[in-house]
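Support request, please re-run this one:
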Amino acid sequence: MRSISAVRAPYVAPVPGQLAEMREEMEEYNRSPAALAGMEGAMRTARTSLYPYVAGARDRHAMAARIMCAQESTHLRQARLYYADSETTAATLAAAATAPGEAVSAARPPSPSGMIVFESPLGWAETQTGLPGGADGGPPVVAIPIVAATWSLWTPAQTPIAGSATQWVANTAFGREVCEPHLQGLWVTFYTAAGAMYRALDPRTLVSVSAPDGEAITAGQMDAALTRAGRPALSWENETVLQVGRRFPSGKAALGVTGSWSEALYTAWQLMAQSGRHAWIETETITRTRAGRRRDRRAGITASGDVHVVRLRANRRPSAGRTGAPGEHPASEYRWEVPPYRSPNRCLDSHRHATGGCTHEERIIGPHINGPKDAPVRKLRGPVYLWDEVPSEAHSR
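Re-run finished. Output below.
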C-alpha cells in the first residue's frame, strides 16, 4: 500500500520500436562491473527476493551477484519482445483486483522467455532516498513505477556459473522457502525506469554524501548519472519465482513486495492468451530491420528483435458498449455495469461437454452491461455507510 506521504515518480514510456535496443543494453549492462557491484550491494543488504548460496565461495555475496547477473543476461538474450499499451495495462489491473485462481502454468506466458514493457505502470514500489528532509523528518519517500518485466522458464539446477553447487532461497508470493532442486518455475524480474526515484525529488535535494571527501550529491546529479549515454533505460528493481503447479495465496497479506506485481503480470498473460469470443487482445508486430538483426546476432541475442504490440480489441476498450440510451421505462427497470471478473472453470468446448471431451480453464470475463434491452444504465453509486448500531429514533428525525 502506498504511503500517504509518498511522491510518485514520473514515467515516460518508450516507443515500441526501441525495445530491441533496450534489451541489448540491459543484457550488456548485466555483464558489466557496475551491474555486478550494484547487485553485490543489494545482496549484502538483503534487498533481493532470490539468493543463491554457493558452497565454499570465498565471498558468497560477490558469487551470488555473479550468478544473478549471469542468469538475467541469459534470460534477456532469449527474450521475445512485447509492449502493452495503457488500455491493456488498465484492463490488466482491473482484472487483477482478484488474484488468479488457476495453478501457475508454464504454458501461460506467451513465450518461454520474454520481456514486456508497459505504457503505464503495472505497480509501484516505495523507497526511501535522500538525507533527512521528508514530511516526517526522515528521508523522502518515493513511489517508483514498475514498468517492465522479463521472464523465463527456470529450475534451480540452471546455475550459469560452471562448477558451483548452489542452494537457492526465495522470498516470493508463496512465502520464504528453500527452492528444491526439482522445482519448476517461472523466473520473473521486475524493472523500473532508471533514475525514477531521483526525478521525483527537487533536483537540489541532497541524497548522499560521497566518501571520503564528504562532497554532497544531489538528486539531479544522481538522475543525470543513471540516465547518461550507455546506461540502460530500465533498472532492475526485484525478482521472484512463480512455482509451477502452485496457486497464488488468497488475500494480500502474505504476498511480499513482488506479490501484487506477479498477480498483475500473470493476469496480463491470461488476457494475451484468451481467444475466441473471450479474446481481449489484438497484436501488431513491428519487424526488426535487417541491420538491427545483424546487430542482435553480434551481441549474442538469440531471440527475435520483432516487437509484439498488444492492444485491447475494439469491443474491449473503455468506450465500447458503456452507455445506454434512456428509454421510457418504469423507474425500477435499469441496466447495470458489470466489472471484469474471473470465471474459474469455464468450458472451452461446450459441444463436447456432455461426453467429457472438453477442457476447462480460468477465463477473465470483460466488463459488460446486464439488464433489459434499451433500459437506462444505472451506474454504481456510493459511498455506502455501515452503521455499528441502528440509529435511535431521536437521531433519525
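The longest helix spans residues 60-77. The radius of gyration is 24 Å.
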